[in-house]
Amino acid sequence: MFISFEGIDGAGKTTQVAMLQQTLQDRGREVVVTREPGGTALGVDLRKLLLGGASDGAAIDAHAEALLFAADRAQHVAQLIRPALDRGAVVLCDRYIDSSVAYQGGGRELSAKEIRDLSMWATGNMVPDVTFVLDLPAEQSHARLTGPEDRMESAGLAFAQRTRQAFLDMAADEPERFVVLDATLPADQVAQLVLEHLNSRAARN
After folding, report:
1. 10 labelled as ligand-binding?
2. What pLDDT score was predicted for residue 13?
3. In a 3-state reduction of DSSP, which class is residue 31?
């Protein structure tokens, strides 16, 4: 099973991934935890560039940014995600295709369809079985962040608002895959809602 966690910065994705990992491992499942960008050695190099910027300080063109994310994703699926799924592991991913659609399509205001089509081509149409969107008001995003802001985190409130709305729009368009959860709730309550959905899905199957 391939499960992704999405949402704007500070929504609690990494926390929820770790909590679900522990629960599934306690049930005897092999769990592979990964993230984008940076799930492979190539991805780590691309993450530094994407979040830190070019070495000469030049702005990264929005189209170049989208292509770099797609390159990271292609390697990620080929090297890590697909092999893990093929051997029966559960893959938990902190961000995936929908982040590109939301951040480059919504935040950067590129064509959401083109961004999605690019990632689908790069991954051989690999999409998660379930995507949890941790929904957080954009105004609360920066208050939750610690440490220096990266390129995405420093893009401003309007950027975060467009990105959040893009996630919600995708969830409305694909209700069979997306589950929107209130990220303002305590982390343990969000984790319980995640488990309830997965248990219900397993019962249906």
Report:
1. yes
2. 96
3. strand
Q: How far is CA 62 from CA 45, 65, 83, 101, 104, in A?
A: 18, 5, 31, 12, 7
Residue 7 counted as an annotated binding residue: yes
27 by DSSP, 3-state: which? coil
pLDDT at 51: 81
* Domains with residue ranges and CATH for the chain: 2-204 (3.40.50.300)
Q: Is residue 48 marked as binding?
A: no
What pLDDT was estimated at residue 148? 56
**DSSP-derived secondary structure letter, 36:** S
Find, among 138, 197, 150, 205, the residue nearest to 20 by Cα: 197
* Residue spans of the chain under pLDDT 70: 107, 142-156
d(CA 168, CA 134): 10
- DSSP labels, 157-201: HHHHHHHHHHHHHHHHH-TTTEEEEETTS-HHHHHHHHHHHHHHH
Q: Tell me the three state secondary structure of residue 95.
A: coil
Q: Tell me which residue of 88, 89, 102, 65 sits closest to 178, measured CA to CA.
A: 102
Q: What is the pLDDT of residue 151?
A: 52
11 known ligand binder = yes
pLDDT in tens, 106-121: 767 778 899 999 999 9
Rounded CA gap, 81 and 165, in Å?
28
